[in-house]
Amino acid sequence: MFLCTLTTDCDRPGWDERRDMTALGAGDFVTRNTVDECLDYCEGDVSCVGVDVDYDRNPKRCWPHTNSVNYLEDNIYGQPGTTSYQLLTRCMSDTTTPFTTGG
Fold first, then answer.
1. Contact 64, 45 (CB under 8 A)
2. Which of 2, 32, 47, 77 would bridge with 37, disulfide CB 3.0–4.6 Å?
């Protein structure tokens, strides 16, 4: 299982982008106008580890993930019109508080 790396040496977080794919276990969707707004939404939530973006809707539907288990290969499947983004690195400032999860 991959866990997101926290770093202060970045301008933008790192994402693993999988086109026409989605991951099982997403939470309720939120709507945003652009893909970047979906990614920003996830980056702004310390519990978010990734987001699936539905391109077929306008505004975009963003399906956040809060469990990295969702990104195991058995939990990823084809979904035309959707791109799955897994957060690989999270930018943090001097005021960001790192968190840990059980497991």
1. yes
2. 32
Q: What is the DSSP string of 42-54?
A: HHTSTT--EEEEE
Look-up: residue for tokens 């058995």? 74
Mean pLDDT of the chain: 81
Q: What's the CA gap between 91 and 79, in Å, rounded?
A: 29
Between CA 99 and CA 78 the distance in angstroms is 31
Please check whether residue 54 is in contact with residue 21, taking contact to mean a CB–CB distance below 8 angstroms.
no
pLDDT above 70 (res 11) = no
**What predicted TM-score, i.e. pTM, was given to this entire model?**
0.76
Structure tokens at 10: 């970045």
